[in-house]
Amino acid sequence: MHSIPQYTLHLHSISQYTLHVHSIPQYTLHMHSIPQYTLHVHSIPQYQLHVHSIPQYTLHMHSIPQYTLHVHSIPQYTLNVHSIPQYTLHVYSIPQYTLHVHSIPQYTLHVHSIPQYTLHMHSIPQYTLHMHSIPQYTLHVHSIPQYTLHMHSIPQYTLHMHSIPQYTLHVHSIPQ
Asked: Could you name the domain of life of the organism this protein comes from (predicted)?
């Protein structure tokens, strides 16, 4: 785990697992923050979700191998939604956002874009993702089956990430 200047990262797990760079077998977590307030959290194996929020407010999210989620938020205020059979997509866009959502099997996606560049993403049934993004952030989240991830990026640059039911992860990035 690496933290750049102006950041303190705290990572701890609740339950039976202590996480630093790696967690339990079959679930490897890598976390680091790189310049421009970029956080990467990886949890393996079967599902990898990437959420990107760069200073220009672009979000990209996907989970592999069976699920691919893409959410793009850019300053043109346009909505593009593409859904593959057996998908329900809900996209709510508030000014200053362009959302593009693409989903793959067995998912219900809810994407909310509200002022101050906050995105809420929910993928159901096997996991629920909540993501809140604030300017000058790039967030990468990779999740595992049967996990719930909550990720919050607020104006004070605090990130909270929770992965349950088998563990709970808290990731805090706080300005110094």
From this structure: Eukaryota
